[in-house]
């Protein structure tokens, strides 16, 4: 399958087909790997940003774990509406920005932790400047990504240890097939 353009990737996630609609992400267990990695290294008073927060499963797991300075970016308005229904306490406490990562990230300040879960693998090569923007804004980065799959046209596989190394980040932890996600996903905790 041919790689999608940046506009096509954005449009896909703004209005995905049934296989990727917001309701499919309710109750998914993949949040555990992010919460565990953050809990071992990042203080509870940390400023935290999730890129592609979907329906809020991981952000709410972070809130439940004691993190309260939370921000999320989500391109899909249906996901944000479902988050409002499922996690009203999170919506009251967190800042949720609706739109693309490319639209919002450049205007944001510094964070102690920026993380993503199955989102960076969909960043189009024309938008790779967001990796430098992440590096400029964070002390810690957690990626839980499929670094291998490329057959859908909307997957752009990358090794995130290599992506962030030029910006001074070193890999602190690596988890193959993280809990709740499985293969081909890998989790990386990177720090500078």
Task: Reconstruct the topology from this structure.
Layout: H1 6-14, H2 31-41, E1 47-51, H3 57-64, E2 69-74, H4 77-86, H5 88-93, E3 95-98, H6 101-104, E4 111-117, H7 129-137, E5 138-146, H8 160-164, E6 170-176, E7 185-191
Parallel strand pairs: 1-2, 1-4, 2-3, 4-5
Antiparallel strand pairs: 5-7, 6-7
Helix pairs in contact: 2-3
Largest sheet report:
7 strands, mixed
By CATH, the topology is Rossmann fold
Strand content: 15-25%
Give the topology string: H per helix, E per strand: HHEHEHHEHEHEHEE
What general form does the structure show? Answer: globular
The helix fraction, in percent, is 25-40%
Regarding quaternary structure, what we see is single chain
Class by SSE composition = alpha/beta
The parts where pLDDT drops under 50 for at least 5 residues are none
> So what's the CATH class?
Alpha Beta
User: What radius of gyration results from the CA coordinates?
Assistant: 15 Å
Descriptive overview:
The chain has one domain (6-191): Vaccinia Virus protein VP39 (Rossmann fold, 3-Layer(aba) Sandwich), CATH 3.40.50. 32% of the residues lie in helices and 23% in strands. It is built from 8 helices and 7 strands; from the N terminus they run H-H-E-H-E-H-H-E-H-E-H-E-H-E-E. It is globular. The mean pLDDT is 95. By secondary structure, it is α/β, with parallel strands linked by helices.
């Amino acid at each position: 399958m041919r790689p999608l353009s940046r506009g096509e990737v954005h449009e896909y996630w703004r209005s995905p087909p049934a296989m990727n609609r917001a309701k499919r992400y309710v109750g998914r267990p993949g949040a555990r790997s992010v919460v565990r990695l953050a809990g071992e290294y990042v203080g509870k008073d940390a400023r935290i940003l999730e890129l592609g927060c979907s329906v809020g499963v991981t952000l709410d797991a972070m809130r439940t774990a004691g993190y309260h300075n939370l921000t999320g970016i989500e391109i899909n308005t249906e996901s944000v509406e479902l988050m409002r229904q499922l996690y009203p306490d999170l919506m009251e406490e967190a800042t949720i920005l609706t739109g693309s990562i490319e639209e919002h990230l450049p205007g944001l300040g510094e964070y102690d932790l920026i993380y993503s879960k199955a989102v960076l693998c969909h960043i189009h090569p024309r938008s790779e400047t967001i990796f430098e923007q992440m590096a400029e804004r964070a002390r810690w980065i957690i990626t839980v990504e499929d670094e291998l799959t490329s057959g859908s046209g909307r997957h752009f596989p990358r090794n995130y240890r290599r992506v962030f190394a030029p910006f001074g980040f070193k890999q602190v932890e690596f988890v193959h097939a993280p809990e709740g996600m499985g293969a081909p996903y890998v989790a990386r905790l990177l720090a500078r």
